[in-house]
Amino acid sequence: MSKLAGMTINERLFHVGIMDEFDAAILSHDQDQAIALLQRVELSKEEAMATVATVATVATIFKNPGKYGYIKP
Predict the structure, then answer these.
(1) CA 17 from chain center: how many Å?
(2) Could you tell me where the DSSP H helices lie in 1-73?
(3) Which long-range contacts (CB under 8 A, 24 or more apart) does 20-25 make?
(4) 33 Cβ partners below 8 Å, 6+ apart?
(5) Which of 29, 36, 48, 70 has the fewest CB atoms nearer than 10 Å to its CB?
(6) Domain boundaries in the chain?
(7) φ and ψ at 70, to 5 degrees?
(8) What is the average pLDDT score of the chain?
(9) Based on C-alpha coordinates, what's the Rg of the chain?
(10) Per-residue pLDDT tens for 2-35?
(11) Is the pLDDT of residue 54 over 90?
């Protein structure tokens, strides 16, 4: 079983050390990069594009990034 099993998406991103890269992808609206990063933490492309439990996914975050704490400096 994967070490990432049972972790939230944010926990996975943090554990793998790519949280800042994911944040940057969201802020720059780089959907391909954001999806690629989510795939690195063992989400399928379909999971990255859809709602996973109650966690906002790339498409949802892009609609309102400020709601999820993504505020451009």
Answers:
(1) 12
(2) 9-16, 19-27, 31-40, 45-49, 58-63
(3) 23/70
(4) 21, 25
(5) 29
(6) 9-67
(7) -95, 95
(8) 83
(9) 11
(10) 899 999 989 999 999 999 998 898 888 788 888 8
(11) no
